[in-house]
Amino acid sequence: MDPVKTPLGKMLLEEITPVVMVLRTPLVEESCLKNSLSFIEMLSPFCDFNNIDVPVRTSSDQPYRLQKFKLRLFYESDIKQPNIMVAKERLKQVITEAGEKDRSDLSTDPPDISNVLESSKSEISPSWFEIFNKELVRTVSFSEHEAFDHPVACVSVVSSKDEQPINKFVDLFNTNKLPSLLNDGAMDPKILKHYVLVHDNKDGPSEKATKILTEMKNTFGFNGCHLLCINSSQDEQIEHQDNPWAPYKFDSSPSQHLGRYLNIYDFNEIKDLIQELSSKHIIPYMEQKVRVLNQQVSATRKGFRNQIKNLWWRKGKEDTPDSSNGSMYTYSSVESQIRVLGDYAFMLGDYELALSNYRLVSTDYKIDKAWKCYAGVQEMMGLTYFMLDQSRKEAEYCMENAFNTYLKLGSSGRQNATRCGLWWIEMLKTKDQFKEAASVYFRICSEELLHSAVMLEQASYCYLLSQPPMLHKYGFHLVLSGDRYKKCDQIKHAIRTYRNAVSVYKGTPWSYIKDHVHFHIGQCYGFLGMYDVGVTHMLEVLACSHQSKATQELFLRDFLQIVQKAGKTFEVLRLQLPVINISSLKIDFEDHRTYASPGSTSVKESVWCSLEEEMIPSLPTARTNWLELQSKLLPKYKESNICVAGEAIKIAIEFKNPLEIPISISSVSLICELSATSDETNSDVSCSTSGIGNNEEHKNLREIISDTSSFSLSEVNISLGGGEAYLVQLTVTPKVEGILNIVGVRWNLSGSVVGFYSFGANYGKKKIAKGRRKAKQSPGNCLKFMVIKSLPKLEGFIRALPEKAYAGHLQHLVLELRNQSEFSVKNLKMKTSHPRFLNIGKQEDLDLEFPACLEKKTNVSPPANPKIASNGVFLFPEDLSVQGENLLLWPLWFRAAVPGNISLQVVIYYEMGDLSSGMRYRTLRMHYNLQVLPSLDVSFKISPYPSRLQEFLVHMDIVNKTDSESIQVNQLSTIGSQWEISLLQPIDAIFPSQSLIAGQAFSCFFVLKSCRKSSSTEESTSSLFPHIGSNVSLVPDGSKGAPFDTSNSPLADFHDCERLQHGISNQEAENSVDFILISRPLKNNAQPGVSDAHHVFSHHACHCRQEYTKLLIIISVYSTASTSPVSWVVDAPRTRHHDFSTTSFCEINFRMTIYNSSNARASIVMKTLDSTSISDQLRDETSGNQVGWHDVSLAKDNKMESDALRNHVRKSLLPESVSAFIWSGSSSTRVQLKPLSTTEIPLQICVFSPGIYDLSNYVLNWNLQPVDDHEKVGERIQSSGTSLGYPCYLTVLPSD
Amino acid sequence: MIVCVAVVGHQNNPLYIQSFTEADDALKLHHIVHCSLDVVDERVNNPKKSGLTLNETFLGLLYPTENYKVYGYLTNTKVKFILVTTDLDVRDADVRNLRYGIAKITFLSMSGVAMVVGSCGTLEVSQLIYLRESFWRSYNLFSSAHVITGVIAHCISQILEFFRRFHAAYVDAVSNPFHVPGKRITSRTFAERVSNIVKSFGLSSAG
């Protein structure tokens, strides 16, 4: 590529050209200003010769041709180094102007980065950079150390109106106004002079002017004088097409009519003047000078001898201090002459000559340590290399060297360095070394912000243009530059750079950087008053949870400021503050299922379903097959949920504040859509909205919001602290039938920004991604509701249900049902999940006085059968209907059965009185949580009464497990007619305090007597009155009235439930006894003895068994079947005195009484065993017998323990009691025993020595023969078995 | 001193950035790390140009910014590790060796290279590399070049060691079955381990 055609080449051909100094009188300027032009401006369009072909001959004999030539004209006052401050102002002005022009596309979206990459080089970087760079280069013109800015010629211009024009010419040149360059010897004051006389044709004919011209020619010589006539156009103003002056005038406006009095003659005249000046005067003068200087230089410096001489001479000067400026060289010094020679040669296009001279002088300067001059020469060398297009490397090396040397000079070289850098950059750009160019840009950044902003921006474009594009650095430098622009209040530039940066960072996860960029753009737009755009950028930074708290505050504050300034509320589709946790979305609605309290919805649907299973009518599926069913059912019913007009749908959704600072959110409400028709296309629309772009979706949402007539919405205001999450409860109540679609949620952030959030798309995605139970349902449908006609709805609650109760707490409750609508409901049914806890009373119980009603009444009426269906569903009376303002009250009995946390569910089913409505039935679901604390821990231990058949000792242990309550134990009752219970000792004796304080334990013994009758005669009565039993009052008689009636409604019902719970039916209660302990807590300890009338505890100890067993209330009893139906008593004397001296042995007679407690005939074989070891064997066998399905109960453990103990006792006893006894009489006795009868067997033993004897080594084998074949009891009770004897000790003492 | 370490995913997404300065300079460090990705890309695309071939994964000094030196390391899965340090000075002993080597060549001060060496008390690795290159190229000063090579190798090996340990920590962190590939590393163990590595690096470098 021809270096001349490159941007740098063009620039050099424009900037490094001969300078002509212009001296003029004020009158000249005056006549020019009629055209709104200064004299120089008038001439400058003609100073540029582009397509010329001028032969030039410099040092060599061979002439060459010059293609392009340019003159630069300057007034004498301008030929000086520009003031730095002025230059800065000028630069700032350029930038500001460029910014003003740039306004066009500020509000558009930032371009996509791929588009940016595709666009061409010229599109990428703004054009004003060239102007700026040119201005920047000009700030360092007219330096002393460079000769190309030194004037080559001087043109003196005098107007024909001037008095004594000839004298004026002389005056112009003599005044002290001449530039310092000429005066202080930096350049040769003898320069080419040219004299021009300007004549304004408006002032009259030109005769006078020609006269002066001849005078001039006489005075200054023929060649150097010229007459210029201007303003030839007399009256009319000339409109120039392609006004030639326009490009030369910066602040031109169309109204000025540049050159309005200049017609074509003036044009030609000016052109002639300049052409003559350059071709006949300046070029020959320069040629001449080059030749002369070259000769001089050759004479003094070229050749070996000169070089040696020079070296010696330089050596002598070595001690001179560093001189940073070039003042040590005057125009007459050889170094200056070489430099001038080089510059002239450069300007005339003889680059070879220029280069050789630059090289020559460069070493001189270096040895002299004249660094500034050295740098200047190096710079020129670089440019010359470039123009010669020879050695790129050398060119760059020279430029770098010059750049570094300038930088080393400190502040004085700073601007030169900048210019040098710019040229270097251009050089690099020409060779497509953009990356290097960018780094040079970076290096010429000065402390001055505005300057470096421009440089950084240019650097960024270089990174973009480099191959491959370095986008990261592009972005970074844009941000740096934008930051600087912003600091200098160049807002528009800042926006431009930041916007470009946005396109780099868009879509990347570098959130810190993105936040910074968006925040600053937002601010910039805010400064400019373009709040809309600013807000959109600010929105991006709102959810900046990764930032520090201070930054978050700053972001939010500035955002709100901009919003406030905008003065309107913004509606933003995806406002990121607060964050909405869509997975927390929970919808509660009531179709046929209604809920009494919000807590009810949290219970699992399956729990409810299992409760309702028995109550709700099943779908009539039997009549149709499934195909018909599909078509018959309302299709909408399947697809969407059903809700009832006038009943609220509750939506809970979590709002989370991601920031550390509190935010306030107001008017949170749902966005809903209610279409009266059941049009299916509607759903398609709502589905497809997610696919459409943001704007349309936004519009859609807005339309939806405007239509709120057919339903009402709730509004919630919340304020979220830092990092807080809040579950917002929202409701929508449809008023008319149709299809309700819940679209989303809207809220108002800090009272100024409205945010929308659409559930549809997001919710669907979430659900699909999870692929959970909702998979069957199409995702959008859970937010779609079919609204049906208003229906009666039952509301209900249980009055005064305690949340916390002690175990056994019994309370009378009232269920209250209310139906707000005027339509009646009927066929009420009810079921509770825990019948042990909640029992449904009878209607007449409603007004009972509690606990008086529990007391035994004299007239016992047979209990009416409660209407409880087999599965525990309670049917309300059929004639009952609830309607209007009527309340339905129904009594309930509550008893806290077991300690623990109980979740109690109650379902009430009801049918619509009006059959035409959409639903036949509804259910009311009630849910209560209650905590049951332990109160009394009661355990019973029943053992056979020694020596008495059919009587048992009951050992009752009570521990008060409450924290602080004192409990008075009132009454112990047994259930069933066959038991009678009585105290072993009077209660006053054993239990004087009558109440148990917290933690106290208490034991008490009772006698339990079985009064079973043998036959089935009484069976009917016992089944009729299953709960009639006997009571023992544990309080002194006088203190309280009638005992509690355990056979009546609540207690008996609960007792039944307890039995059910333990899996025992009523019938198999033969050998078991159930206890009910009634106690009451004392109100405060301050008043002992005064019992709290309203708290009655009833403890049901179910099914305690006759034998060995100890039972807690909570233990379920399984081992009933292992009971032996046969019991016996060995009626032996305890001690016997015998005189062994007279008779060596002693016979002892005693009896065994055997009782058959079963309903079957028993055949019993009693065997006596002489050896204890055999009995031990047997014992082992019997215990081994009990393999299989066998419950290892507490009782069993007890027995084992006692076995072990017994073995131990026997083993320890045996060695001492050496003499054993022998069974005399029959060793085996067989008896037949009728049901519930007793028999006696006589027994005899012989003892041979005094001692203690254990009469337990016998075995009873029994075998039951059922009386009736179809008696079912036999199936459960073991039909045969072996019982071992129990210890019975006999002491034989020698009688004295 | 290590200022910042970063892990950048293969799509140039930040996985982990941790600064070890008290100042609030997160934004700056993000920018530095983000910028250095360009250089990483460049090195990866034309590996011949990158001067150091000590280890394939080690990318060497990416670029010196105003105050920081940025080093890079690239794993086989195109995950980049970036290390931002303040001046990483050559240790005193090494400098002494260097001076000794340079003493031999002072008579050739015309080259200007020695001038650079003499004026710097401590040298940057980048300068050393430049110096070595010029020694190799311009003069037959192999001995000096070797001395410099040794010094450079010592510095580089420190950084290389750091990257190896960092890499190991990273591998352990992403082996966690609960880590989602391509997402930010939030493991606390990883953070602790990295800070330990950084601390130990500071110690060995100072000693």
Automatic annotation (TrEMBL), chain A:
GO terms for cellular component: TRAPPIII protein complex. It holds the Pfam family TRAPPC-Trs85. Residues 1132-1257 form the TPPC8 C-terminal Ig-like domain. Residues 808-924 form the TPPC8 second Ig-like domain. Residues 605-754 form the TPPC8 first Ig-like domain. This is Trafficking protein particle complex subunit 8. It comes from Salix brachista.
UniProtKB/TrEMBL annotation, chain B:
InterPro entries: Longin-like_dom_sf, Sedlin, TRAPPC2L. Gene3D superfamilies: 3.30.450.70. One of its GO terms (cellular component) is cytoplasm. One of its GO terms (biological process) is endoplasmic reticulum to Golgi vesicle-mediated transport. It holds the Pfam family Sedlin_N. Belongs to the TRAPP small subunits family. Sedlin subfamily. This is Trafficking protein particle complex subunit 2-like protein. It comes from Salix brachista.
